[in-house]
Design goal:
The complex is a heterodimer of chains A (113) and B (114). Chain A is mainly β and 113 residues long. Chain A has strands spanning 3-7, 10-13, 19-26, 32-38, 44-52, 55-58, 64-70, 73-78, 87-94, 103-104, 108-112. Chain A is built from no helices and eleven strands. The termini of chain A are far apart. Chain B has one domain: Sandwich (Immunoglobulin-like). In chain B, strands 2, 5, 6, 10, 11 and 12 form a six-stranded mixed β-sheet that branches. Chain B has a four-stranded antiparallel β-sheet with strand order 3-9-8-7, with no helix packed on it. The chains are: A mainly beta (113), B mainly beta (114).
C-alpha cells in the first residue's frame, strides 16, 4: 500500500530564516505531487504541483519554491521566511488521472516568529 | 471557472441525528467530485468520490453522498451522527485541464453535540 510522509511535524522559525520541508511517498511510482498551505481559518491553497522529476508548476507567486529531486520526493523551500508564511503545509500525491484521488500527508505546522 | 461552494460555515447536529453537509458545483464537462474530512492538526482523509454511474456514492465511516445533476449538488450525508464525526469537511472538484488538480470548497465545520 501507499504511504506519504512529511517532516518535520512542527517547526518554529524566525523571520528571515530559510525553510526546507520534505515529503516522500512510498509504494507507488511516478506520482503527481502537490504542496498546499492551509492558513488559520481552514481554506486550502495549492502552492505547487509536479507531474515528474524536475517538473514544477507554481500556482501563486511568493517567496516559496519547490523541487522534485527524485521520483517520490517533493521539497518545499524558502530562502527567507515571512510572517505570512505561517500555516499548515500539506503534501499530497495522486496517480495523475482526472478521476484519481489525492491522498494527503500528515502535514507540517510552521510558525514564523 | 470550475469550482465548488460549501454555503454553510458550521453545521451543528445532535448525536444520533442525520448529518448533511452541503456542496454545489460549477464545472464544464463531466464533474468528478470528492469529499474529504480533516481532524485537528491532521491531513485530509479521503471519504468518497463520484465519477460516474450510481448517483448515491458510499464511502468510509458510514458516509454517503448524493450526486444531483439537475441541482448541481453533491451533498454528504450520514444517517446517524457520532461525536467522533466532529471535524472539518471539504468538498472538491477535479479541474478539467488540471493534471488532477482539485478545486476545494472553503470547508464546513461539523459539530456533533452529545
Amino acid at each position: 500500500s501507499q504511504t506519504i510522509h512529511q517532516w518535520p511535524a512542527t517547526l518554529v522559525q524566525p523571520v528571515g530564516s530559510p525553510l526546507s520541508l520534505e515529503c516522500t511517498v512510498e509504494g507507488t511510482s511516478n506520482p503527481n505531487l502537490y504542496w498546499y498551505r492551509q492558513a488559520a481559518g481552514r481554506g486550502l491553497q495549492l502552492l505547487f504541483y509536479s507531474v515528474g522529476i524536475g517538473q514544477i508548476s507554481s500556482e501563486v507567486p511568493q517567496n516559496l519554491s519547490a523541487s522534485r529531486p527524485q521520483d517520490r520526493q517533493f521539497i518545499l523551500s524558502s530562502k527567507k521566511l515571512l510572517l505570512s508564511d505561517s500555516g499548515f503545509y500539506l503534501c499530497a500525491w495522486s496517480g495523475g488521472g482526472r478521476t484519481d484521488t489525492q491522498y494527503f500527508g500528515p502535514g507540517t505546522r510552521l510558525t514564523v516568529l | 471557472a470550475q469550482s465548488v461552494a460549501q454555503p454553510e460555515d458550521q453545521v451543528n447536529v445532535a448525536e444520533g441525528n442525520p448529518l448533511t453537509v452541503k456542496c454545489t458545483y460549477s464545472v464544464s464537462g463531466n464533474p468528478y467530485l470528492f469529499w474529504y474530512v480533516q481532524y485537528p492538526n491532521r491531513g485530509l482523509q479521503f471519504l468518497l468520490k463520484y465519477i460516474t454511474g450510481d448517483n448515491l456514492v458510499k464511502g468510509s465511516y458510514g458516509f454517503e453522498a448524493e450526486f444531483n445533476k439537475s441541482q448541481t449538488s453533491f451533498h454528504l450525508k450520514k444517517p446517524s451522527a457520532l461525536v467522533s464525526d466532529s471535524a472539518l469537511y471539504f468538498c472538491a472538484v477535479s479541474l478539467l485541464y488540471g493534471n488532477n488538480r482539485l478545486a476545494f470548497g472553503k470547508g464546513n465545520q461539523v459539530v456533533v453535540i452529545p
